[in-house]
Specification:
Chain lengths: 375, 262, 326
């Protein structure tokens, strides 16, 4: 029922905007308002703070349906969940009370700032630093490739605080919530991207940014662990985006193949097209089922959460790239021009193989889980 | 106020997949079921009334056991609870059985009003409202365009659509009212409503729970039966006119003249 | 008395409702085929005029006068009185118009007597001692044939299924006083009857309907529909989208949640022909549509479709029709 309700909303109100969002590369504030007013942004938040207390699967279903018509729009919900996860996992009641009601209502947006120019896959080598000064911390550094970093009201920032030489790599970081408008915090640039062009990807600068200790999330040195646990729960959101993109592309390709006639019949009757469409459908369904399974496993506290999370994102991302590329192929020349949405979907799909951990990182996570398995 | 709304799950007409089983009964498994469109208007009217007067809405359904999904949709709109009367012996029920069972179910519920849609998209008869009213010995007010309860006086006033305008009817409560679309567009379930519906109560009742014998209801004692079916004769192929408006208009008039309509 | 019965409905002016003439014609034809008797029954505070009119269709009419029929909702009074007239354990079938009042009577009567109902007959024959009724289901995709499993039943008949045809002779009217005993029905009172200016005649009875949909763009756009209806001498209809948008009252809505109509001509402007609307009008004798979209569903089942801008084709059609009627 929830899937249908979001689907109808996506088809009627978001789909007509998708091409324009991509063309203008402007953040779709109207879509954000739409999602907020329909309580969709409140899905990840607990009921006591005004949220709907939705489980991972519920949030994934919503992201999938929105992404089917517009990957940028699907990302709005995914990023809201991603940015809020450190607080959901490690925030105090006071912090949740302070920030969740506005986030759940969609009045404020939150982003997740871990990546740096020199710390991507190697997140632990973060150089942004936070130094204790009385009751505050002072943050200096810069973050890169932060999804929605320029439109967010709050940013969950990971900075190195434990810098003595004998601190293990993965115990150096601490998580802080930085509010927009804090002196010294600003957007240095917004990238021009291949895809998800309506979602602003920002470089954030921190020059002597002072935050109270009350904005620290979790214990000092716990930041990296929080980030990893966050990603375990947020990767399904990206997998959902990828499944949605793939389904959207498949729908366009299938419809086109039934209508386009060459050599006297619809091209859907030619076996090479049939084979492509069949593989696209089977691949997307497999990715979808893995995603749903991963969501229920992670939600129920599986000790294998990292493996499930990495797997669903790996499979869904690769599938989305393949399906969208094939969708362009099915449409032939028409697939390459913007008269049809598949070229946009192909450009959008690529990011699902890159962010929240590249596909290579996902494989490392899975391999490590495999190696660590007791017999 | 306590309002019971009669809700029927029907095959989704938009699917165009409805069909009969080999035994000529409606195949309720062929396409997903949705809440009968006219019942949504009754449900909306009930929700508006409890918003104005306080109270709760109970959805009452007689259907195969899978109908809990459809009832959840009604709960997502805002109804408080559902009651599903389901029993294998009820398969193939005609109007007589349906009315008997629904009236028996109502006997076990407390209510000020029972609201129903004027008809169903699968039966299209319009007989359940008046039939249940007779069997449950409730006053019956039909084709309501406006419902105004006066809870303190235990009265309800209804505007009934008439060929010339409307009649104003007054009745003691409890009463059964058949609702028209004029009462207002049904709300879309909000996400909040959808999430809340998951934990709302649906009570299941069997014939035994209602004190009814299986021999008295269902397909075995149906008063009507379908004996055959066929596709209707196909309409002749559509004539497509793409000319400029003036020429097209002349063609249309000539066509109508051919058929002696003008 | 065994046989076929016809319910005569009474208009606010006291005359016979149009649909009752049609149902009488329908039942009379079936009675002739079956070799059965057929009679009419009218229940009203003053049934005389309607009964006399019904007698031009049927050989015998019972005119039941009951003052309660004016003070209470008519349908339940009629159902109770009729139930009192019918004898148990005989073979009897009741034919009723499938309008709001008729359906209420049919539903009440069915529950009072425990009879079955077959709704919306489009045709009937007689077989093995009972009517075999044809109905159109699944949005017109299928025609079913049904019968009663016992010796009794009620059949409802939609408007325009047959044309009303007087029998050519005048039947006998028997006056029946309603019994003095109290009606069973809990007391619902009619406290006012309000006539609203501009209420259209029941659209189900119209021979010609001009209907507008979402494509009309607004209540201003609907003026075109009204003008075309006027020049054709027809009624104005609408889709649910137009009614929901407030361009036209609900009483003129055609479709799954509105009325089912079977006019001689259905002229559809700016209507896509989605299934929820289609079920309301697809048995019309002639369907003409004007639509900008050649892929609209209505282009598949209309008899003639003009692909074009309805705000150009519509006025051209209006001009052509006006010129023709001089």
């Amino acid at each position: 029922m929830l899937r249908d309700a979001v689907r109808v909303l996506a088809d009627e109100r978001i789909a007509p905007r998708a091409a324009e969002i991509d063309r203008t590369a402007e953040f779709p504030w109207d879509v954000k308002e739409l999602l907020a007013s329909h309580d969709i942004l409140s899905l990840p938040f607990p009921a006591e703070y005004g949220g709907l207390g939705g489980e991972l699967l519920t949030v994934a279903l919503a992201i999938e349906q929105i992404s089917r018509v517009c990957a940028t729009s699907g990302l709005i919900l995914a990023v809201q969940e991603l940015g809020a996860l450190p607080l959901l996992l490690a925030g105090t009641d006071e912090q949740k009370q302070r920030w969740f009601p506005d986030l759940a209502a969609g009045r404020t947006l939150i982003a997740f700032a871990l990546t740096e120019a020199e710390a991507g896959s190697d997140a632990a080598s973060t150089r942004t630093r936070a130094v204790r000064d009385g009751d505050d911390w002072v943050i200096d550094g810069s973050k890169r490739f932060i999804s929605q970093g320029s439109v967010a009201d709050l940013v969950a920032v990971f900075a190195a605080t434990e810098t003595s030489d004998d601190t293990p790599r993965h115990k150096r970081l601490t998580c802080f919530i930085v509010e927009k408008g804090t002196a010294g915090f600003g957007v240095e640039r917004v990238e021009h991207k291949m895809g998800i062009r309506g979602s602003p990807t920002a470089e954030l600068g921190f020059h002597g940014v002072r935050v109270p200790d009350a904005n620290r999330v979790g214990a000092p040195g716990e930041g990296f662990a929080i980030a990893m646990r966050t990603l375990d729960r947020s990767r399904p959101g990206i997998a959902a985006q990828a499944v949605g993109i793939a389904q959207g592309a498949l729908d366009v390709a299938a419809r086109y193949a039934n209508e386009r006639r060459q050599f006297g019949k619809p091209i859907a009757e030619f076996q090479m097209i049939q084979a492509m469409l069949a593989d696209m459908d089977a691949g997307t369904e497999a990715a979808r089922q893995l995603l749903y399974k991963a969501c229920t496993e992670i939600e129920s506290g599986s000790p294998d959460a990292a493996r499930w999370s990495a797997m669903c994102k790996l499979v869904a991302g690769d599938n989305a790239m393949k399906v969208t590329t094939d969708a362009v192929q099915v449409l032939g020349g028409y697939g390459y021009i913007d008269e049809f949405p598949v070229e946009r979907m192909m450009r959008d799909a690529k990011i699902t193989q890159l962010y929240e951990g590249t596909q290579q990182i996902q494989r490392i996570v899975i391999a490590r889980a495999l190696a660590g398995r007791p017999d | 106020m306590h309002i019971v709304v009669l809700v029927k799950p029907v095959p989704d007409t938009a699917s165009s997949g409805e069909r009969l089983r080999p035994d000529n009964r409606l195949d309720r498994a062929a396409v997903p079921a949705v809440v009968n469109a006219n019942d949504e208007y009754a449900l909306e009217a009930a929700l508006k009334l409890v918003e104005a007067h306080g109270g709760e809405v109970t959805v009452l359904t007689m259907a195969p056991s899978g109908a809990t999904d459809t009832i959840r949709k009604a709960l997502a709109m805002g109804a408080t609870r559902g009651v599903l009367v389901t029993d294998e012996a009820l398969a193939g029920s005609d109007i007589r059985s349906t009315v008997l069972v629904l009236a028996a179910a109502l006997a076990g519920l407390e209510f000020d009003l029972v609201l129903a849609g004027v008809d169903t998209s699968d039966g299209q008869g319009g007989f359940v409202g008046p039939g249940v009213a007779v069997k449950a010995e409730l006053p019956y007010l039909s084709y309501a365009a406006k419902i105004e309860p006066k809870p303190d006086d235990r009265l309800v006033t209804v505007r009934r659509i008439s060929p010339t305008g409307y009649d104003v009817l007054e009745s003691p409560m409890p009463a059964l009212i058949a609702c028209t679309q004029a009462l207002g567009e049904p709300r879309y379930p909000s996400l909040k409503g959808i999430m809340a519906a998951r934990s709302k109560e649906i009570v299941t009742k069997s014939l035994a729970d209602l004190g009814l014998e299986p021999e008295g209801v269902g397909g075995a004692v149906a008063t009507t039966e379908v004996v055959g079916s066929e596709a209707p004769p196909a309409r002749a192929a559509t004539r497509v006119v793409r000319e400029a408006p003036d020429v097209a208009a002349r063609e249309v008039v000539a066509f109508l003249a051919e058929r002696r309509i003008v | 008395m065994a046989g076929l019965w016809v319910l005569g409905e009474v208009t606010p002016e006291g005359t016979l409702a149009r649909i009752s003439g049609e149902v009488a014609t329908f039942a009379r034809g079936l009675a002739a085929e079956a070799g059965q008797e057929v009679a009419g029954v009218v229940v009203a505070a003053d049934p005389s005029a309607a009964a006399a009119e019904l007698a031009t269709y049927l050989p015998r009419v019972l005119a039941v006068s009951d003052p309660a029929a004016a003070e209470r909702p008519w349908s339940f009074v009629a159902a109770e009185r009729i139930a009192g007239l019918l004898e148990p354990d005989t073979q009897e079938f009741m034919f009723v118009g499938a309008g709001p009042d008729g359906r209420d009577v049919a539903g009440s009567l069915a529950a009072l007597l425990g009879w079955g109902v077959l709704a919306n007959a489009i045709g009937a024959t007689w077989k093995d001692g009972g009517p075999v009724v044809e109905m159109s289901v699944f949005g017109g995709r299928l025609k079913t044939t049904s019968r009663f499993t016992g010796p009794t039943g009620i059949v409802t008949v939609r408007p325009n299924v047959v044309t009303a045809e007087p029998s050519g002779s005048t039947g006998k009217v028997e006056v029946v006083e309603a019994p003095v005993d109290e009606l069973r029905q809990p007391a619902v009172r009619v406290i006012d009857r309000v006539v609203e200016a501009g209420t259209a005649a029941p659209i189900e009875e119209a021979k010609i309907i001009v209907a507008g949909g979402r494509g009309m763009g607004g209540s201003e756009g609907f003026k075109l529909v009204e003008e075309l209806a006027e020049v054709l001498g027809g009624a104005v209809g609408a889709t649910r989208a137009a009614v929901d948008a407030g361009w036209i009252p609900y009483g003129q809505q055609i479709g799954q949640t509105g009325k089912i109509v079977k006019p001689q001509l259905y002229l559809a402007l700016g209507i896509s022909g989605a299934i929820q609307h289609k079920v309301g009008m697809q048995t019309a004798d002639t369907i003409v549509a004007v639509n900008r979209d050649p892929d609209a569903p209505i282009a598949d089942f209309a008899d003639l479709v003009v692909i074009g801008d309805l705000f150009e084709v519509g006025p051209a059609l209006l001009a052509e029709l006006r010129a023709r009627s001089g």
